[in-house]
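Hi support team,

I submitted a single chain yesterday and got back a structure, but I'm not sure I'm reading the token output correctly. Could someone confirm the output below corresponds to the sequence I sent? I've pasted both exactly as they appear in my results page.

Thanks,
R.
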Amino acid sequence: MITLTSPHRTRYHDLPAGFKLASLCVLTVFLFSIDSLAVHLSAVAGIGFLYALGGSRFVRAGVRGLLPLWPFVAVLAVWHAITGSLITGIGIAAKLLAAVGLANLVTMTTRLDDILGVVRKLTLPFFRFGIRTGGLDLAVALVVRFTPSLLRKGQSLATAWRARSCKRTNWRIMVPLTLSAIDDAERVAEAIRARRGS
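Hi R., thanks for writing in. Yes, this is the structure output for that exact sequence:
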């Protein structure tokens, strides 16, 4: 759901990273503090319009980045339909889609180095209190880089499951997915230690 920077240039690429991240925070808080279906649906439409301004290639890349979100939206819709609160389910799904869509838009149009630069600036005051925050920007970078990779591995495991079984994909793929994530984490840790000489 978090897409790496899009190679297709748009006007959003030229906006400062700090402005985009601050806007993302403010709009997300606003979305989750308002309990209005009209506002949530308007937010989804507005974010869709922002994607459309980037052109058809940009829209396709954005939709691909949001594809893993649809199962969650479907589960929300089905659950609330069963419990007789479909309108509430639509509101929650719209809120989720708007928030993740906006985050996806920011990561598509912001270089990782620029995001890390904002994180470093925000954590500078902590140095006065003797708190070491050097690993925070690295942690942010790893989350942004590994989330798409983890999603691709999950999709591959689900495809392999469907190829070998007539049953629907279930929780059993979580074990190999977790082990794969741990293995990747160990490899990255070894690489970091090797580069730092410790």
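A quick pointer for reading it: The longest helix spans residues 134-164. Let us know if anything else looks off.

Best,
Support desk
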